[in-house]
Amino acid sequence: METDMSFLSKTSSSSSSDDDIELRRGPWTIEEDNLLVHYITNHGEGRWNMLAKHAGLKRTGKSCRLRWLNYLKPDVKRGNLTPQEQLMILELHSKLGNRWSKIAHYLPGRTDNEIKNYWRTRVQKQARNLKIDANSAAFQEMIRYLWIPRLLQKIQSSSSVMPSIQSPQSTPQGFNIEKNSTNTSRCSSCSSSHSSNIYNSTNIMSECPKIPPRDIGDSDLNSFVKAHFPVDDNSYDVDNYGQLATGNYYNDVMDYDQMSGDQNKLTGDVLSDSFWSNMDEFFYQKQDMSHCR
DNA sequence: AAAGCCTCCAACCGCGGAGTT
DNA sequence: GAACTCCGCGGTTGGAGGCTT
User: Which residues form the signal peptide (predicted)?
Assistant: First the structure.
């Protein structure tokens, strides 16, 4: 993939005449990738500014580091985030905030950049759909009580063998679903212990009273929402949740996604795996269930 | 078919902390 | 301890490709 070379530039960090070379910016070429990989294979990573010079790359050290860590490093995982990984991100973000590198630490093969992008493009998108601040208590509650349980359901239904959520080197402090020595877990939703852990979270679905069951009806969901979404935040909009429970809200969201006019999509392929990757699925599933009543 | 719009993600930028001189 | 350099982090941007009209 050869790219436009027109955006050559100097960086302000160049200080000596020796460094006064044209530095490349923009997408990396295959040749540059090869140079970087070859150099790091032979000499190791680190000392990025020096590495950039010695490798013959007309790039800043920062650019080389980023390219290596986010793309070229052999253990970088490619492809969509699994539901397990998404679950980890949601849980960890609730505890760590926008500390992407810290979150990435618990997801081997995933980079801080990738996680940050996921959060901005998927999670914050849902906040926009719901017209609430992604940092608001209401949205945090939405994630905790609706999104995370749905991911757990997805994990449960997609595999009878609990998947490869990587155990971190050390459990992050305050992580919501903690494995302990007696093989029980403290659940973030109800603060009680269940006989499962983050690596086998399926039991949480049936044991946690705060997680709505998969086949919850509209009236039950309404009760659930009222019971578990405390009205203690100015940005919290009770009416929105009322709409959520009655189904009107799904229409709003679908309008946003420009799908409201195609009911076939709602009951058909829209329920495919790809849709389980974000909150949209929840709304589609609810819409689908409403047809069955 | 094409124009416009949207989404996603690779890459850049600025900043602050750590290390070195 | 001041000045400088390097490194890593989080925020932001720009462009490719897909989708819609």
Answer: none
Contact A184, A177 (CB under 8 A): no
Kindly give the parts of chain A with pLDDT less than 50: 1-20, 161-293
Bases along strand B below 7 A from a protein CB? 7-14
Kindly report which amino acid residue has its CA closest to the C1' atom of nucleotide B6: A257
Q: How far is CA A37 from CA A26, A42, A45, A72, A154, in A?
A: 18, 9, 10, 7, 38
The contacts found for A64-71 with CB under 8 angstroms, 24 or more apart, are A64/A36, A66/A113, A67/A28, A67/A32, A67/A33, A67/A36, A68/A36, A68/A40, A69/A111, A70/A111, A70/A113, A70/A114, A71/A28, A71/A33
pLDDT digits (tens, 9 = 90+) for A184-208: 333 333 333 333 333 333 333 333 3
* Domains parsed from chain A with CATH numbers: 17-72 (1.10.10.60), 83-166+212-290 (no CATH)
Nearest nucleotide by C1' position to the A117 CA atom: B9
The DSSP bridge partners found for residue A178 are A186
A28 touches strand B (CB under 7 A): yes
Phi, psi (degrees; rounded to nearest 5) at A23: -105, 135
Q: How far apart are CA A109 and CA A97, in angstroms?
A: 20
Tell me which DSSP letter residue A82 carries. P
Q: What are A122-161's pLDDT values in tens digits? A: 888 777 777 777 777 777 788 877 788 878 877 777 665 4
So what's the pLDDT on residue A241? 31
Does A274 contact strand B, using a CB cutoff of 7 Å? no
With CA atoms as reference, report the closest residue to A92 among A131, A126, A119.
Answer: A119
What's the Å distance between residue A11 CA and nucleotide B14 C1'? Answer: 13
Which run of H or of E encompasses A225? helix A218-228
